[in-house]
Amino acid sequence: MITHTSYGVEPWALRERGLHLDVLPQSESVFALSNGHVGWRGNLDEGEPHGLPGSYLNGVHETHPLPYAEAGYGYPESGQTVINVTNGKVIRLLVDDEPFDLRYGRLRSHERVLDLRTGLLTRTCEWTSPAGSTVRVRSTRLVSFTQRAIAAVAYEVEAVDSEVRIVVQSELVANEQLPGRDGDPRAAVALQSPLEEEEHFASGARLRLIHRTRRSGLRVGAAADHVVTGPERTTIAGEANVDVARLTVTSVLPPGEKLRVEKLVSYGWSGTRSLPAVADQVDAALAAAASFGWSGLVDEQRAFLDEFWARSDVEVDGDEEIQQAVRFGLFHVLQAGARAEQRAIPAKGLTGSGYDGHAFWDTETFVLPLLTYTSPRAVAEALRWRQNTLPAARDRAAQLGLRGAAFPWRTIEGSEGSAYWPAGTAAFHVNADIADAVVRYTAVTGDERFARDTGVELLVETARLWRSLGHHDHHGDFHIDGVTGPDEYSAVANDNTYTNLMARANLLAAAETVERYPRRAAELGVDDEESAAWRDAAEAMHVPYNHELGVHEQHAGFTRYQRWDFAATRPDQYPLMLHFPYFDLYRKQVVKQADLVLAMYKCSPFFDEEHKARNFAYYEPLTVRDSSLSACCQAVIAVEAGHPRLAYDYLHEAALMDLHDLEHNTRDGLHIASLAGTWMALVAGFGGMRQHGASLEFAPRLPEKFRRLAFTLELLGRRLRVEIVQARATYTLLSGEPLTIRHHGEPLTVDQNKPHHRDIPALSPRSAPAQPLHRRPNNQGVEAS
Ligand code: BGC
């Protein structure tokens, strides 16, 4: 188990005691603050030591040529990489001429706390300089949920036992030096000096830097303002040059006296606005924030989070670690999406530069379901971003000889950023995943305007893609050949079951929506013939099945392949993609991540109970979980297949992916989908929640360890609370009209008058399927049973 004793377990906070340089890069990710627009990694105030300095603005990226050994038609030529923008969090300190650098002198105490209820990251430490002067430093940081452009720091230094001369330098720094890459292909290409200076400015306590990215031509503005409180002999002076704007504060502190610097930072960027316009934009945001002041921002942050927790909290009794992890996950998913506003939600959120800052299907499949039931506005915004990128998706479809829209596998600004066709563009399922998110959002919120203005277009263009990508054979069956499903250890295969079932749902949803919004459909050029063709394709969709084994095939012919030799694979040879050639992975039965198992969750009604159990038993021994997206899906189906203990172990793995750095790459940023997957494993897994159209079902079943699981959902204009103990579930409608749901198949109408209790049917004992050798779920070595 890769964990660190420095992180404590508590219900509403993540606390690090002491400073542990070995986990510094990981701590920067777990302590990252973001609102979906601005992201600050949890770097130390003084900038050094660091693992990876990181300040991000959602959408700000640089482009670079994508090199290929051999050219091929339709290969994307330009890649996109998130860049480290102007760092507004730097506050350096000099104590009697010695830099406050924790690698020197004596660190008497150091603690960092991320408080999930206030949204504040607080650091307190006491340090004695090499020359023997002792200071106490307390800094508190926030990235505002309510003022999208704003981040802030309150920094306090106190002299402890003797008078000290203090210099505080509060800075905006562009083009920070970044550490070299370590060879992990998933880590970002650290572009050195991506910003060209356009303007620098300092006056009094106000600072501003405007830069422009060299190739992508995006203008990035950052401004800062300060309120300084200190003893009489305190002075301030501002200065700016090409890449640094700095406020220098000097003071002499008698013992017990404090110097306090409140720093407000605003950010803005644009691909079109002029330099004066961007400068005005950041100044205006700063003026608005200054009118609230630090304490106003703190109050607003708390109020925003109080509301969030009231509608989203998940309570787990009996497992403190999972309790902390699910709240940590909810908080970071909120941070990733809350104010992204028509920008992508990247796989790492704004917590690191891993995966080059790209967004994948992770957003629609893992992140948006959670947000749909807890922060639906963020979902509408994320899908509007997809709509805004339709021109690029239409061009891509045309380039590929297809109709409609082909959304990119990975991207920042909308165009395909994957240079690897088999696990990139061929993963066409991303289009159905987007459609699925549209359908869920509209069913859960009833947002008619969105359905008409955004939903129809997304459903129509993706349905067009499927109709042109697939074909009817001579029996009339519809096939989608040559595509890659979620499992990236199979590629360019025929009739991937997940893809086909998701495409089927996409085609049917498109056909239904054009009937509901005929005017909008006509504007998009849809006629009866076209929508009838979608229905025909959906109804004739082929789903491969092995009659001998009685299981669904992940794709046509999959169950005939040779099985991977798990016995001969050493534990250090995982992830397999870094130790074996893709060609071999592709032609064997080995599954990187839940694929058919995910289909059984997303397209649940298609599979009967018996097949769910049988398919799960078949795919478990083949699934190696080389992706962090797998464990949560396996948890969901493990519960349904009657293995709550195994599901618990998968939940554990998904939930602790980052807190325990299970994949050794948390330093590059958090696994946002896996964090969202914690919610999914609890709500859809142990809560057994499934929603198909307007029908909402629960089939709760707790693992032995849990005494109680409770969660709240917002849906169909109501707030519903579900509380589960071992033998009983209680459904309480907190607001809204009566609602009919199902509990383990039985209909139940809940109204506001009283809690509705229902017994949980007993589970007959059955033995859980085994996993590949060395690939048991990672739960502190406890064997699954
Ligand atoms: C997974 C993909 C995922 C990507 C980003 C890959 O390892 O196989 O399914 O979209 O990571 O999280």
UniProtKB/TrEMBL annotation:
Residues 746-785 are annotated as: Disordered. Keywords: Glycosidase, Hydrolase. Transmembrane segments: none annotated. Substrate binds at W361, D362, K592, Q593. The keyword Repeat does not apply. Residues 16-270 form the Glycoside hydrolase family 65 N-terminal domain. GO terms for molecular function: carbohydrate binding; glycosyltransferase activity; hydrolase activity, hydrolyzing O-glycosyl compounds. Pfam families: Glyco_hydro_65C, Glyco_hydro_65m, Glyco_hydro_65N. GO terms for biological process: carbohydrate metabolic process. Residues 689-750 form the Glycoside hydrolase family 65 C-terminal domain. The active site is at E488. Belongs to the glycosyl hydrolase 65 family. PANTHER family: GLYCOSYL HYDROLASE-RELATED, GLYCOSYL TRANSFERASE. This is Glycosyl hydrolase. It comes from Streptomyces avermitilis.
